[in-house]
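INPUT
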Amino acid sequence: MSIMSYTGGTVLAMAGDDCVCIASDLRLGEQMNTVAVDQKKVHKMSDKVYVGLCGFHSDAKTVLDKIMFRKNLYELRENRSIKPKVLATIISNLAYQHRFGSFFTEPLVAGLDPVSHKPYICAMDTIGNICTPEDFVAIGTGAEYLLGVSESFWRKGMNSEELFEATAQSMLSALERDAASGWGAVVYTITKNNVNIRTIKARMD
Amino acid sequence: MWGLTCREDERDTEDALGETFDATAIEAPVSGQFTFPNPPLGLQPKGFVNAHFGPDSSAKSLQFRKGTTTLAFVYEPLTEKDVGGIIVAVDSRASAGEYISSKSVMKILDVSEHMVATMAGGAADCQFWCRTVNKYCNLFELRERSTITVSAASKYFANVLYGYKGQGLSVVCSVGSGSLNAYGILDTYYKPKMSDEEAMSLGRRAIMHATYRDAGSGGVCNLVHITPTKKIRYPGVDVSKLWYEFADEIGRDIAYNPRDD
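OUTPUT
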């Protein structure tokens, strides 16, 4: 088993009409053994910007601290809240600085632009190659399953409720086939007015 | 080639009373009657299998990695109306690495009228060799006119497998990756005397807890109850449903609330 699937975990982000959804499973494992079932992989960066970190959990924690540090410095210097695209570039630079000995974690950024409320989603590989599709992105051990199933659930111009449904259903379907993720999931629906956090019931095996 | 060699003239030589029983027919079937083609160019079978289907293989979905939880225990009846016997319980997940290749595998295989085997390890290896033992048991019963003992069948099984030592066969009987978790439940709640109901729910609960902790196990819990007279198969019960019932029973709050955000 590779280090990228040692602790397991999956994150999915979908973009809709002036809203984005970001979902994460809750499992933390050590190879085949499940250690905890309350580890979300999505973290709040600012009001409407969230980052997901999959891969090796220890590295994900370290990288989260480093991202927080750089993001806080940026916000203090600029005295305004960070845009998701800027955050993605910051994370990409951080990841590439470790080009020849990278952290074993794949970052994902999802959020709304604080001014224009334009949705933004992107995912990166371990050394910071940003990939910005307009529909959905997935990272982690269940990414392959998610991309396949999201292809059929995603529609253009979904409102926040439809988007939540599509994200939750895609997540649940992927968790059925990925042994390294699951044990519950949490979905963040980000709209320009509020962020709705919902836990979804999943299979516990 | 496949199975026993049996000469035409040896057949039906005994009469109804078995007085002229042919001495050659008493011979037990010999293991090692199968001929499997070897990999080409004199490659070692184990090395060949490991290179293409082992942990280092790049074809992840072809890897022979099967997580499993299976268990069995004996119990005495508690009251008059219980029958007692053996409970065999298994999960139903087949996985290749972290990929779940099937959610509904039947891991309890029939060996004879009153015997079952549970499979862990390579599914094809388990199924094939259980079929072989099944055949041996049937022939034994026809020849000896008495049912084969469990120890005789398992000795035969062990001998056959020993013949393939070092060739990379993966057959594990009665355990699996999640079994350590199952032992925890069995050690805590097992009693020598139980009602049938109690014994079956213990079997299911042990499987459920194992599937909860072990990523290699899951799906439904299949169960067989072997009584002194017969073998009863019970339909699969969803282990996730069992877990939510358990959480409800102990009053655990299943809702997850993120601490931050």
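end of record. DSSP finds four helices and twelve strands in chain A.
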